[in-house]
């Protein structure tokens, strides 16, 4: 039986060098099995050495005719009996061939096939190189059908199948691409009748597919990016929708997000003017629910409840849009258990605003958001000891026209957090400031008011058009008010009471008269006119001739005012009487017969008269009436102390909300029966002609720089009539009592020094000059140290010029704006933003205006003769050289000599023509 050798399937496939892939053994086996038929000749042993080897070669024969090259698509098969001929054949052939060695058998090769192969090889050598094919094209297409039909069956079995090359346009794509549009039987490189051709073709396409993978990765990355983008936008839209869904609009201008407890208020131009985070400290994820019917109100309030934590009410307060453009909203938080303290924080970073008002402190400047304090009770105190000063109002206003007015019944704690850029208010009980609990749990109540701008809002809130301050004033009250503005206050305040005598007062007033250019004004005598604080009788041992002295002062044109306090020293003769009559404040948890004691200034132990007891009012009035009748005293100044001067566990006849209400009750008890020119502390506006005093300042440059922002803060708080401290600094200031050995101390040994007066060092000369220049433009001028004490003609000359300036220019303006203060509540001395707009004016803390007609910029640093000056919009006349100055700009390095003060007078805009 004839056998044939298993062919070597590692054929040389015409291809590009980098596309070559060797067929794996598994594929070879698969091709062999697929081509196997029953009629196949068995393979002989491949390794038999006796069998001669025959190779065949497949190629593309060609020939040359008439100088044209032709290449047939029929593959050439050449039998090679000697394997050495393979190398020669390779050198002669330009195209790769398929080789397979055979053992010689009795099978003969047709001669014509041998001749055909030899001639094809020889002809192929004559084909030019650029016309030789780099690959053999195989096809099983229909174009070979006619040619095959012309052959006999025997010839067909002996002649290799041929497939004519299709004449297709050349493409730039690889001929091994497996794209559908490129694949066809005509460009196949495999045999026409075997399954192996398809597998080979697939294997040849692998390198090309591998080259396409980078493109696939880019596509996949792009698709992934698009997917992530779509997912992000869907999530963002969902979040935004949830926020909008949870944010509800109330009263047209209020938006409240219940989930975040965020309230936002807009003005008529849809500009956000206030943003607040409400109920800080309550779980953020806790959901709110509508209040139960029994907890709802019938006044149109919106009611929400965070179960077991807080209940919230929000409503719009009624107003008349035709009268003003101010709209107010009421916010009311009710805690539902003891450990909850309602707290709201007002942000100034997102809304880009500045806050003013409240109160002045050593840690708070102008504006409030430039300082920082921790949560502290909102009660009065000494600026050097406590967080807040001597005058407070529960009123805050921002630069975009939104204000917060906290209810007086709220146990208010306040903090300014400069790091988080928030002002926070909290309702919290304690054992001193808010020990008298009016409700079972803390409640935070306040109003939010908005208007067109900051100036109109401030004017609307502090307007007294419905109840003007002049209503009920007597002619004597109006005369006192005008005299305080136009005449100085001469404060006689020695450190020790033995330094104050009738001769001291007489000598002081004689020195004033000797000046020749200052008016007489009010002589203010401190509490040392008594032997002990609380006697309410003149110390006759030191004032034997007080009647004569007072009559002399009246003839010279002076008015005399005594300082009184509601404190009764335990060394006073009246202490036993007041204890017996139970006129003093008692301990909250003690026997009502035992008074509560405290310390006040230099008095180590003192009781406090109960200002809520009508019997105490009558007792004090009787004592003071005797003094007025006997010594013809004109008026009184109330030194009320601060909240921290009250006994810690105080208890009055009537319950007080906080210790600051004491001073309000004391002033109201006597403001109509006594002539009062001023109070040292306040939390509510007293009735004119009472002036609210600034806190006492020590004699220093730092204290001088504190005067203007403190004065502006008190004016914004709604106190139009302010009495500043003495020129050059006060003899007593908070903390100074610690330097006093006792109330019975003696004069210093160097009292005769030229720089001292009554044992007290005079202020530094330059400091005194700059302080006097500033005080010339303030509502009241108060002196303790006379300018003549410096024995310097330049100081006297400057004081004389400033006095003339005040009498001719400043006093008429102050009296003019007095009427506006009584009617609208606007202060006489104002911040720049209240008179003119502009972003720059919001931060100016060392300038002020009188009404809207004069801008004052004093020098507040030592050894300086220049300063930066900001002028509001308009046309201004320079007070130093009379030149015209354009406003709405900064003037850098503006020269201010030591004997001059910088001020500018507003002029009509057409004056420059």
TrEMBL record:
Gene3D superfamilies: Glycosidases, Golgi alpha-mannosidase II. One of its GO terms (molecular function) is hydrolase activity, hydrolyzing O-glycosyl compounds. Keywords: Glycosidase, Hydrolase, Membrane, Transmembrane, Transmembrane helix. GO terms for biological process: carbohydrate metabolic process. Residues 527-650, 698-809 form the Glycoside hydrolase family 31 TIM barrel domain. Belongs to the glycosyl hydrolase 31 family. This is Myogenesis-regulating glycosidase.
